[in-house]
Structure formats: structure tokens, C-alpha cells
């Protein structure tokens, strides 16, 4: 074990020329972007890291020092924290990977640096210990953040560089890291307000998880680049002239939305890239600030809307009502002279820095952790509130709530009186009702949005005015649990379901006791347990519940107790919960339909997972089950994150081989306005026009709208996309979505 004293003075560390040059560039960036720089400390941290990793190499074959050096440059250039954070970035792996100890770091660089390195080491340890489980990982991550928030900023930089250099790793490990990045680190970066890093993490993860979609978007944007730049220039010129005339100091930038954001829009709206209109935006950054900053933003908004026609429903005021991560800006979408949509964002320089670098931007104005302002205090308060998690909640629920609170965009809706309520995106009138009051939620029977009746599952959008219709005779519907998104609504509905179940059990027991008394039967609790077991119930409570529900006849129990013979029962075939039967896959599937780790493997059972229903053309991976079969999942499957993160040793790389005359079962969910003949038109398009076999079709209507599921057979992803595009053209069809389960 190395001694914790004078380690650098005792060793002559000779640094190779390329790394000396990069170190000089790092120091220069620190002087450019940080408020103060201890250059000697940074050079000493690099020297120690270089020596400690002298025998280490990355998977690519380059010296390991290239990684901490790249991480430090991201911290200095992109996040712009302080020099201590840069030093921690240079040293973030030494305790985990080398003989250096925390005591050595403490003796060489002081207590603050030792705490940062210790926090970074603990976070790294979280992800190497699979047995901890994701929920516990997140808890530990938050605890380390709460101790010194700079730890997570350095971790963001570490993850960003790792994502940029994934190509040297096995494909299964790439999938695991990309999934983990998309499910945890990108949402965390979003919550911290690190917009650029969040976007880059998402795009890099998309490249691994959805390579076909990534390539389509990149080539599509590249092909339209010249036209797009010309269009932006025509839009900016009159705007720039007007702003100059009014005496503003400003900067105008045109920017494309990040690839993952475009991908989500394409998937949610079920549209190709050519039909996604808000792919790029104009950003106006005002140099003026202080007390006039907000006022100037509104003056610029007036100039923009004088030049171009605004779309009222696309206006967002995040200056008066900032987002929870401190983001402030005015957003509006206008129509230019050619009728094209253009999103315009207006903000001050300070607002822009916070929008780009979030909480980290406050280091520019305050010194270190002890100088945190109200926004930083607000953030740390959020962390501690998140930790106030009831002991009764299960760990998996904690992770779900955590991810939802971090990543979901907020919407702002109004009561009939005009009171503003903040809800997560995709919230429904039922979520709104529970936000108003628990009793309003329980007795909600209908809702009006902007004066029109809507289904209770309707997704609200910012600016909606919502009126809840209640009835004291009606109580919460258990089916609401399928579409509500807020924690309060879910927990209250779950509580009411459990309460109703307990009431049903009490009522079932009362019915039993009443009829048993008439039959002169008296049983002890032990005898009731044996009776329930004989009828295949785990507990008497379950038996009483089925009595109250009318699923079990008390006379059958009495007959058994008198004769000793249970009533004869017929075999009942139980249907799967999913409307899709995946048995058809067995006719066509098998290892020969796929290449596993680049080879055709025979004699191994291949199962196509019903949770995501993959078909040729989907990006997929294989998971080796305990029975030895290989389960094929789409990389975007809801179960993929759990499998890729927790079982990397069981993951197999899979690609589709070319097969003729192969059909795979797939499901589509179709929604729209109900009308006479809709089923006829749908079946005509699918069966007659597109020559596709329909396995089943079911539609149900409510409040003038229909929702249905169509189960059919397709050959591959191209076939499916062609079907979706054609069905969308049927009159009154408003949406066609791939049915995952």
C-alpha cells in the first residue's frame, strides 16, 4: 500500500508530448471559462493521475489517461464548475482502479477533493454491483449528490465521454450502458438543467439503441441542411434589422432540435421526419440583464409577433412561471411569409446560461458550495423531499416515481376560476381532479376541457381550462389506474381499491356466517383455512372476496362440508391477458431466423418476447433465460433497461437473417372519431388493398370516439410501416400505433 505523503515529489513523472499539449489546452480552457483557477493544483492532479494510470489502457488500446483528461475538459468547457471539480475529474478513477487511496488524495489535495473523489468512487461502485438492484442504486446516487452536488456534475462528464467512446466495447455492453444512460443519466441531466449534455447523452444512446432511426434522422437533416439554413437566414434578416433599430444588444442563433427529441416526436405522432415541422428553432439572446431583462424579453416578443403571425396555442411563458429546474424563456411559434412554422425562444444571457448549464451556472456568480443561492437551495430541497419516501413503498415504485418526477415535462392548466395548476405531461382530468382535492378525484364522473366534454383518459396540454363534473353517488373507478400519471392519483386509487377489497371481504364473511348459521355449521379459523385450501384459495380472505363477488356459491362450501365431496367443475380454458396470441411465432421462428453473435445457431429455442413483439427490421437483442432458451426483445422494450443493466452476462447480440414467406403476428391500436362503416373501411384497406391477413379486430366506442385493436400478420418492419401509413388515410382515423403487448 502506498504511503500518504509526498508521493509526487518522490517520483519523476515523464509525460508524453501529446498529453502535455492536451494538459496545456485544459489549463487554457480553465482560465477561459472558470471564475478562478489554481493552475498548480490542476497540473499536480494530472501528474498524479498520469502516473497512477501509467500501466492502464482503455478498450480502444489508447492510454487510460486520455479518459480522465477528456472528462476534465468537459467539466471545464461544458459544465464550467470550478477548478476543484476539474481536479476531481482528473482523479475520478484512481482510487477505484489503482493503488492510490483516499488518504493519499486527502494529504496531497485536501479534504474537499477527498470528499469529491470518495463520492465519485461510490457512484462508480454502484453500477459495478449488479446485485444491489436499480432502486438502491438510485437511492445511493441521490445520497452522494446531496453531500456535494458537484459529484454528479463530474459523473455527467464521465458518462458523456464513455458514451462517445463506446465503439470498442462488446455490443451487449454498449446496449447496457446506452440503456442506463437514457433511463437515468439523461433524466438527471435534464433535472439539473444541463440541456446540452442531456441532449448529447440522448443522441448517443439513440445511436446505439435505435440505429436505423438514428441514421434516417441524420441523413434526412443532412439532406435538407442547405435549404434549412437558407430558410433560417431569410427569417432572421428582417428580425435582426428591427432589433437593431430598437437599440437592442443581442445574438440570434438558429438551432436544430436534438435527434432524440425528433425521434420521440416521430414515434409519438407516428409521422415520418418530413411531417415533423418544429425540427429547428430561432433563439434570441439579449445582452441586457438586471432589472430590465424580463421587460426587454417582452418587448422583443412584441417585435417578433409584429413581423410574423403567431400561433396562440404554441405560446409558453417560462419567465413568469419558470420550470422546476430554473429554466426561464419565452417560447412562441410563428408563421413566416412562406407559411412555414418557426419556433422562437427569447431570453437574457443569464437565462441562457442557466438554460444551457442549469444549476452549474450559479457557480459563475457564487463562490463554491457555501455560496449557493436560492435556486440551488431549492434544488437541494427537491433532493431531500425525494428522499422522504414512505417505508411501505416498494423499491421499484420508488424508481418509477423518481424517473417520472425527473424527466416528465410540466404542463400548466387552469381551474374554471383561472387558478394555475402544475401537472406532469400526459396528465389527465382525473389527475387534475385529485390535484384539486381527494374528494373531487373520488367522485369525478366527467370533465370539460376548454368547454367541451372529453373522456377522463384525455391527455391535457398547457393552457387548458379544466372543469370537473362530480357526483356523490359515484366513487373512483379502478380502471383509472391504467392512465393516471401523478403519484397522488395513483396512490389514492390504489388505496381505494384496497379499501373496497377489504369491504368486499367483510361482506363475503357476513354472507358466509349468515348461511352457515342457517345450515347449523360452525367452523374455527383453522377449519376455515383448510376449507379455503380445499377450494384452491390461498387464504379465507380470498375465498370471502369471491363469495361477495358472486364467483363462489356458498352452497358449494356447505355441500362439501356435509358430504366431503367438492362440486364437479368443468375445465375452463383461460385466455391470455393480451389480445395478441404469439403462438403463431412458433411456426416460423427458430434460431435460423436470426444471427446470434453473428452465427446461425441451431438446436436452441428462440422465443419472441410478448412484451414488445419484435419483427424483422426491429433493433433487437437476445436474453438467455434460466431454461437455456433465448428471448428476443426490441432494444426499446419496456423490459430492456432491467435486463441490460442487471443481466449483462446473459445478453446476446442478434441480427435478422433474410427469410422468405415468413409472417409475424403484430398488433395495431387505432383511435379516431366513430362513424358508420369504419370497420368495413379498415378491413377493406388491410385485406383487399394491402393483401394482409387479419387475425382479429375489436373496436369499442365511447363519447363519439372509437378505440380498437387489430391483430394481423406482417413480414417485416417495412410491411408494418406501409400498413400504418395506409390506415392513417382512412376517414376519421386520428392515430395508428404499434400495440406492444
What would your notes on this structure say?
The chain is an alpha+beta fold. Helix content is 48%, strand content 15%. The protein contains 28 helices and 20 strands. Strands 1, 2, 3, 4, 5 and 6 form a six-stranded mixed sheet that branches. The radius of gyration is 30 Å and the shape is globular. Residues 128-137, 362-408 and 568-592 have low confidence and may be disordered.
Number of strands: 20
- The share of residues in helices is 40-55%
Fraction in beta strands: 15-25%
Question: For the residues shown, what is the average pLDDT?
Answer: 78
Specify the number of helices. Answer: 28
Radius of gyration: 30 Å
In short:
With 741 residues, the protein is an alpha+beta fold. Helix content is 48%, strand content 15%. The model is unreliable at 128-137, 362-408 and 568-592 (pLDDT under 50).
